[in-house]
Amino acid sequence: MITYLTGDATDPVGNEPRIICHVCNDIGGWGRGFVLAISRRWPEPEAEFRAWHRSGAGFELGQVRLVQVEESLWVANMIGQHGIRPTTDGPPIRYDAVDRGLEVVAANAIELGASLHMPRIGCGLAGGTWDRIEPLIANRLIAQGIPVTVYDLEGAPIVDHSP
């Protein structure tokens, strides 16, 4: 079961090891959406993402890099969107890449004994729909007993591109 809370995903509840998961693009862009909240709290996730992009080493859809930002807190930079703008093929979200990324995040969560925390990943600038993302989370994380908390920022509209 996914726990839904009103709050800030960059301030996850709990004292156990925690991973904050979010979706990044595959062109190295960092500067809009949830990443701004991450960068306001910690410089490391952005710096690591930009260095990863420059290196080109494994920087592709479905890949994930965990960045430790506090003693028992990591940020998972998960590449799950192609570009930053919709095209004739549809929105930037790539559900198969999100699914592969969640599989990697799950393995890391199990190894660390961590819970997962996130906004409604893929449903903002990536243009995805929660009715497609939520089952991926259920299959990759919840099915393995990994606690997941999804945060909706107080006062902000819930962005979901469902028809």
From TrEMBL:
Reaction equation(s) it catalyzes: an N-(ADP-alpha-D-ribosyl)-thymidine in DNA + H2O = a thymidine in DNA + ADP-D-ribose
SUPFAM superfamilies with a match to the protein in the record: Macro domain-like
Lineage top rank: taxon: Bacteria
Residues annotated as domain Macro: 1-163
Protein name, per record: Macro domain-containing protein
Species whose genome carries this gene: Nonomuraea guangzhouensis
